[in-house]
Amino acid sequence: MPSPLLELGHVSKSFGGNHVLQDVNFTIAKGEIVGLLGPNGSGKSTLLNLVTGFGAIDGGRVTFDGQNIGTLPAHRIVSAGIGRTFQLPSMPRKMSVMEVAMAASTSHHGVLSTIFGSAGARRAEAAAHAKATVLLEQLLLTHVRDLPSSALSGGQKKLLGIVCALMSDPRLLMLDEPTAGVHPNLRRDIVQSLQKLNRQGMTLVIVEHDMHFIREVCTRCIVLDRGRIVASCQPDELASNEHVVQAYLGSVDKREPAEAA
Ligand SMILES: Nc1ncnc2c1ncn2[C@@H]1O[C@H](COP(=O)(O)OP(=O)(O)OP(=O)(O)O)[C@@H](O)[C@H]1O
């Protein structure tokens, strides 16, 4: 069996006395599209934050492609090959869509462009522009590339968030509620874009509440409840998984309806 791309071992996180994640263990294999599910407040975003360096783990281990990334800062985790989007994308309002995408490129912040001065910087900028052009096209934002980012709809901002995450060529992309509040047409575009990225070799972890989306896109689901993993199963097994039902609906009454009445 190939070694996992992402591996979490005994990860824990508390905020004060609130034990938000407890003994979280899972692996993600290359090529999977994993849905990270759970009721509100179960710890999904916190988990994404810890893996991507937007918070420090209290205990345990996070390994990406064999490298311990549990203590790395966010920019080093991007360099290692993990990209992410945010539940509520925030971007400089006055910058154009193209500028926002280009600013997410990691190549033009490199040492080489500093050493080789303006010629190197110009080459890096041209490369970032070319890459942003392709990604904006792929995520259906070409027609708005010159508008200020503040002019985008909520759904388009989510697409731009994906573009920004892809500018660093991640091997693993983690998305926080990519379709929340998105119009069905745009939702379909997001689904198709993610499926295409996966066909191109990208591994995806997606926090999402939309069960239609989960069934359509994900190859496996990991379910959190109050900071603990309670299930890892196929999307079509969710409804019959006792732990999942319990997480979402509370205790499961196994008696026949007549008995329970
Ligand atoms: N920076 C923080 N400081 C204190 N508590 C926090 C912080 N971040 C998250 N929490 C707490 O951690 C718990 C889990 O929050 P988290 O946002 O990870 O849940 P979630 O599963 O993503 O929820 P939702 O589906 O509503 O987005 C909540 O009780 C939240 O209040």
From TrEMBL:
It holds the Pfam family ABC_tran. Keywords: ATP-binding, Cell membrane, Membrane, Nucleotide-binding, Transport. One of its GO terms (cellular component) is plasma membrane. GO terms for molecular function: ATP binding; ATP hydrolysis activity. Residues 6-251 form the ABC transporter domain. The keyword Disulfide bond does not apply. Transmembrane segments: none annotated. SUPFAM superfamilies: P-loop containing nucleoside triphosphate hydrolases. PANTHER family: CONSERVED COMPONENT OF ABC TRANSPORTER FOR NATURAL AMINO ACIDS-RELATED (PTHR45772). This is ABC transporter ATP-binding protein. It comes from Diaphorobacter ruginosibacter.
